[in-house]
C-alpha cells in the first residue's frame, strides 16, 4: 500500500466537500444521542445542564510576508515554468508522478498535472497548488479556460481578468464552486501564465471562503514576486 501524501489528502477532502461523500459514523452517533435525549424528555427526566461551549476563534489572516525562499527555479523544491517567493511559514513540496496522477483522477483535472503543493508545515492538506504543462504556444487565457473547463461540474460563477506578472502576460480568475456538503459556495482563484518553458496555473483554494480569504496574502505574494524561469538548453 503506497503512502498517501498531503496533496492526496487534499484531493479526497475536496471531493468530500463537493459531493458530501463522507463517512456517516458521526451522523449515526449524533442521531442516537438525539433519540436518547428525546426519550428522556418523554419519560419526564430533567434535562442535564450542559456548559456552553466557547466559540472557536478564527485563526489570523496570513501576513503576506516573504520567507526569503523562492520556488520554481533549478534546484528549488519544485522546478516550474515560473518562480516566486513562498510565504513566511509556508513550504513547497514537489509531487511524485503517482501522487500527481491520483490528484488528477480525483479532481478530474487532466489538461495540466499537479506539480507542486504549498502550505504551512502543520497542515496536512495543501491550500495552494501549481499545475503545469508543456509549452504548446497556447495563450495564458487559453490555458486558464481549459483548466477551468474541468471545474464546470460545480462551477457557480467566474470572473476573468488580464494582468501581468513579472512582465509576463497572465490571466486570473476568481470563481465559486458549489459545495453541497458545506451548503455554501466556496471562493477560489487561479492564475495562468504561458512561457517558453511551459504553462503554469497557480491555484489558491481553502476549506471555505473564509479560510480562502485568510490565506490570500500568500497568493498575492506569489503573484507579486513571480517571474519566468529560464529555458535551459540541452
How would you characterize this protein structure?
The chain is an alpha+beta fold. Helix content is 29%, strand content 32%. The strands form two sheets. A seven-stranded antiparallel β-sheet has the order 3-4-5-9-8-7-6, with helices on both faces. A three-stranded antiparallel β-sheet has the order 1-2-10.
Largest sheet: 7 strands, antiparallel
Counting DSSP H or I runs of 4 or more residues, the number of helices is 6
Average pLDDT figure:
81
Radius of gyration: 21 Å
* Tertiary shape: globular
Uncertain segments: 9-42
Helix fraction by DSSP (H/I, runs of at least 4): 25-40%
Structural class, from helix and strand content? alpha+beta
Distance between the termini: 37 Å
